[in-house]
Amino acid sequence: MHFGGSTYCTREHDSLKISNGKWCWFSRGIGGYSALDYLIKVKEMPFTQAVETIMGNLSAVPPTFAPAPKAPKEKVLLLPQVNRSATHAIEYLHRRGIDYELIDFCIRTGRLYESYPYHNVVFVGVDADGKPRYANQRGIGSDFI
Fold first, then answer.
1. Which of 18, 25, 115, 142 would give a disulfide with 80, using CB separation of 3.0 to 4.6 Å?
2. In a domain, 22, yes or no
3. Whose CA is closest to 110, among 93, 77, 135, 91?
């Protein structure tokens, strides 16, 4: 029922006033801001029943979180810069007991080179198409800084 201005009351409870999105039941000293508060405090409904009443008796399923599938990024193999000559690498590998012919074959086929500027030996692994897929660097200097 319209009480006056923007205030309304119910036929059941004349001391229950509803105004501007708020309600107050003066005789009981309770009030609230939402329909949910009203149903729980005035109509004495359990929380779940009050929610079902507001939702129209629909069982609301909470949303589930599912991260968006990420497209796999193409990985790029970044190899160290090649030195103009491989003299340090060749000498290091030969001192380790590897034959010059094998070292030369690996350098010609791109499986081995000397890096610039640190003169490390770089061993390159390739796939069936000869494309580099992994690499390992071996320091050949004797001084540790």
1. 115
2. yes
3. 135
Q: What is the pLDDT of residue 60?
A: 56
What is the phi/psi pair of residue 4, to 5°?
A: 155, 140
Range of 98's domain?
87-138
What is the distance between the alpha carbons of residues 39 and 45, in angstroms, rounded to a whole number? 6
Same domain, 50 and 91: no
- Tens digit of pLDDT for each residue in 48-75? 888 888 887 665 566 778 888 888 888 8
Checking if the pLDDT of 5 tops 90, the result is: no
Domain total in the chain: 2
- Indicate whether 7 and 50 sit together in one domain: yes
Q: Is the pTM above the cut of 0.85?
A: no
